[in-house]
Amino acid sequence: MTRPALDALDLEQAPEAVLAALAALRTRDAPTHGGRVLSYVYDPGVPELDELAAGAVRAMQPVNGLDPTTFGSVAALERDVVAFARDLLGGDEDTVGTVTSGGTESCLLAVQSARDTWLAERGLRPGEARPRLVAPVTVHAAFHKAAHLYGLELDLVPVASSGPSAGAVDAGVLGARLTAGPAGAADVALVVVSAPSYPHAALDPVAEVAALAADAGVPVHVDACIGGFALPFWPDLPAWDLRVPGVTSLSADLHKYAFAPKGASVLLHRDRDRQRAQYFATTRWPGYPVVNPTLLGSRSGGPLGAAWAILRALGRDGLATLAGRARRATLALGDAVSGIEGLRVVGVPAGPLLAVATDEEAAADRRVDPHLWADAVAAHGWTLQAQPGLTQGDGTRLPHTTHLTVTPVTEGVLEDLVPVLAAAADKVRGRPRPDATALLGALPPLDGGARPGAGLDSAAAAALLDAIGLGAVGEEGPDAGPGVGPMAPLLALVEALPAPFVERLLVELLARLVEPRAA
Ligand SMILES: *Cc1c(COP(=O)(O)O)cnc(C)c1O
Which family does it belong to (predicted)? Predict the structure, then answer.
């Protein structure tokens, strides 16, 4: 077959061969479907929805979301998605919103808008003051990033480390922190709470916090990135969305429990002016006038189109059915874990996720370390996510845990997964967590300075990665599979090392992964 237009290009490789190479690379990935990976991916278990999303991406991918006046489809789709989210999440006719590229971008923009509103109210410019962002320690890392990028002081409040509200912040403790500044709460630009938190699936006391914040004149963002499209269908939860007085903005990821392909989230603002503060506009250059509601300039219409198509197809009832499947699976997994000697579920999960910790009430030789457990589960072909422990500002310790994000497809694989969870626990019960001291001994004296990785250049960081056996992560090989190997020793190391130092090492690991390789 001749293909004149292609042949005229004197191609390096035929499209079929290019796609075959892509398919070969994809076979090495962790599986995105089928429920074997319990984080990162949100599988509704309905292949037709993937087809629908792919069709919508195809229809919208050439469109540039930069200019909804030129590409009116973008404006129409965004209006629909924002309206759906607003109605689902307790907004009213004054609630406005934006579709962003993901949860991180929604969180960044919420903080940027709060900071700029705070500055404008005081006649200040960025850099002239450093307001506080007050949040529980369990707030998503995207807010650490936002504080870093936008020059806010991240003021983290401890959460309950045990009991039924484990992982949730106490409203009184947060309220006291709010007014503890030199000028009371006057230096707080934003309070953030989670519905629920990613690490522990804990629902923060949104209404109580919002009431205290409103009294202090401080806006509140609810990070419902993970819960936004699932919690509306969860029974027996206290109000947590825009229905709550005092909540000023809310983020909800379409690419999580609305099952859109990656690249879509919604940020809602209760009032127009706070949303307008999120825009960037300039006419002070010799090019087209720039008006950006989000961080990007040119952006594909694909993710928006796919999210719109899936919401339109599913509607509320479809989302409710899928959330119900995820909920039943979450309850079943919670029961299964609670029935395993030596393990326990942290707190009471609000939403389709849960964290698993060691049951300290079990005798030492009957306890199960959650990271050794996750590694043993991985040997059966299932991927759980190891999370480090954390010492909070008040000295209390949040245990290291293993995270499970539960999706609708999980319900159908419970009979395979539950026995694996039990067998893996049997395999590692009584075994202590790896001791990081031996690895630490191999390292030179550490610089625990405040600057990230102060004193480590890329060569030194690479040498250290080699020393701890992580120098070759991602190298090609016949057996190269997903992941960096056992998580238990790695996470023990992460906890034992000063954060700036281990952060620098992880940067090196990831940066080297995408460096071009010698042919
Ligand atoms: C996933 C998540 C985010 C960040 O979202 P990304 O889409 O990964 O950028 C923020 N907050 C919470 C609670 C999340 O679960």
Answer: Belongs to the group II decarboxylase family. Sphingosine-1-phosphate lyase subfamily.
